[in-house]
Amino acid sequence: MQTNLALEYKNRTEGQEAEAILRKCVHCGFCTATCPTYQLLGDELDGPRGRIYLIKQVLEGEAPTRKTQMHLDRCLTCRNESTCPSGVQYGHLVDIGRKLVDEKVSRPAGESALRWALKEGLPSPLFAPAMAMGQMVRPLLPKALKNKVPEKRSAGERPTREHARKVLMLEGCVQPSMSPNINSATARVLDAAGIQTLTAKKAGCCGAVKFHLNDQDGGKAQMRANIDAWWPHVESGQVEAIIMNASGCGVTVKEYGHILQHDAAYASKAAKISDLTKDISELLPELVTALKPQLKNATKEQLAFHPPCTLQHGQQLKGGVEKHFSELGFNIKTASCEAHLCCGSAGTYSVLQPELSYQLRDRKLGNLQEMKPAQILSANIGCITHLQSGTEVPVRHWIEILDAALPSS
């Protein structure tokens, strides 16, 4: 796609990167077939190809409007760009487009306030006590708020054994208070396989919340803080990997090298951190070997697996959980229809675009519940919370099911 950058963007990093991405687009429209919002709305401007045109117009000097901003906001950033035969990095392009549009289009006060509250509140130390208070009064909350406040759950004990093999684990910003057992279960499963889990106290939010709410500077600051917190462990060779059990965090940390590539002080460190980062499912092949003799309580109930967009599209990790869970004796399947489509959670999307988000949730649950599962499994705290808000079937992280099957659990 030929693009004639406006003078104001010719010397900007964002403009140059966007132009390089746009050059690969051949207008084929394959992307529309796998775009969740296009499936719902049927509007070309609510699909990747239409949004690409909107961003191209902005880059060429056309003034963006509130409507431009709306169509970009409606994108879930589900990263389902693997269907593009030309390899267009649409997710990176949307991040650039949103930044450029927001520089020129003001948002209504209420919308701005909500976005500010999300980007400042979710990574804040105040989130945990606020969530605890919400869980105390959960029965009294209105439905829309109750959907965001999961029932309180115990984290269980963390293992204390030391092992020669060590990995770092990112605790996350909301997961410790919303579903603390995910982190504990991860540590217990790895411990059973002879791997010690370490955490860096000063590591916090991965940066995705602020970055995708167009506080890119704030997001980058959080990324640098994490690199600083992890670097002593990495530089000393103490850890073999940085493990993510929230696929949304995983895809972001794997892109630290890209996001910070122009930061002279952090570029090489960021690239190293990205190279070391693995989703916990990437350890499953060796976990199968180590844990299969130990498993005593593998449930035979039907399990339905929803692979998050950030896992199957963003990280290109498809089929691993299902394959290895089956090897361990679990009865697990993905939906036979639309397993590739987003559930509608998408970070803060379910708060900012609730109408579209809940349509996608119900569509996803309809496909999953055709299997009549005893439990629904996923790999990201956002997906788990969002899906649970629409069903009585328990929704859990797959690592919790594996942990429960170990004799020590």
What topology emerges from the helices and strands here?
Layout: H1 7-10, H2 13-22, H3 36-41, H4 48-59, H5 66-73, H6 90-104, H7 109-121, H8 127-136, H9 143-146, E1 165-169, H10 175-178, H11 181-192, E2 195-198, H12 208-212, H13 216-235, E3 242-244, H14 247-253, H15 256-259, H16 267-276, E4 277-279, H17 284-291, E5 302-305, H18 309-314, H19 320-327, E6 331-334, H20 349-352, H21 354-369, E7 375-378, H22 381-388, E8 395-397, H23 398-404
Parallel strand pairs: 1-2, 1-3, 3-4, 5-6, 5-7, 7-8
Portion of residues within helices: 40-55%
- How many discrete domains? 3
- Cα-atom Rg, whole angstroms? 21 Å
How are the strands of the largest sheet arranged?
Answer: 2-1-3-4
Number of strands: 8
Strand content: 5-15%
Please name the CATH architecture of the largest domain: 3-Layer(aba) Sandwich
CATH fold node name of the largest domain: Rossmann fold
* Global mean pLDDT: 94
Structural class: alpha/beta
Largest sheet geometry: 4 strands, parallel
Number of helices: 23
What is the CA–CA distance across the termini? 56 Å
Shape: globular
In CATH's first tier, which class of the largest domain applies? Alpha Beta
Describe the protein's architecture and organization.
- The protein is α/β, with parallel strands linked by helices and 409 residues long.
- The chain has 3 domains: 7-104, Alpha-helical ferredoxin (Fumarate Reductase Iron-sulfur Protein, Chain B, domain 2, Orthogonal Bundle); 165-282, Rossmann fold; 294-404, Rossmann fold (3-Layer(aba) Sandwich), CATH 3.40.50.1860.
- 49% of the residues lie in helices and 7% in strands.
- The chain contains 23 helices and 8 strands.
- It has helices at residues 7-10, 13-22, 36-41, 48-59, 66-73, 90-104, 109-121, 127-136, 143-146, 175-178, 181-192, 208-212, 216-235, 247-253, 256-259, 267-276, 284-291, 309-314, 320-327, 349-352, 354-369, 381-388, 398-404, and strands spanning 165-169, 195-198, 242-244, 277-279, 302-305, 331-334, 375-378, 395-397.
- The strands form 2 sheets. The chain has a 4-stranded parallel β-sheet.
- β7 (375-378), α22 and β8 form a beta-alpha-beta unit.
- α4 packs across α6 and α11 (181-192) crosses α23 (398-404).
- It is globular and about 65 Å long.
- The termini are far apart.
